[in-house]
Amino acid sequence: LVPSGAPADVLRALRTAAMGEHVMLVGHEPLLSELASLLLSGSIDGARIALKKGGCIAMTIRAPAPRSAVLDWAATPRMLRRLGRTHSPSRG
Length: 92
Prior knowledge:
By secondary structure, this protein is α+β, with helices and mostly antiparallel strands. The protein has helices spanning 7-15, 31-41, 77-86, and strands at 56-61, 69-75. The chain has a two-stranded antiparallel ribbon. Helix 1 crosses helix 2.
């Protein structure tokens, strides 16, 4: 996603993606948090989503439309680093 993009543009692009597929979006702030807010609440500022650099959220989206998503989980960069150390193969 381009930093200067608009959440509504992303929704239009998602409508062309196959429904039922897993999609990962990677981008920058504030677009990602605005998109998440739009999908969760119907407004780009309706839900306060604070994504730090390297953070990640997962949502289940029923349709690429406002208020169609449920937040499954959120992870900070620190949490993800810890998970990586916990689940990395042993070196022995």
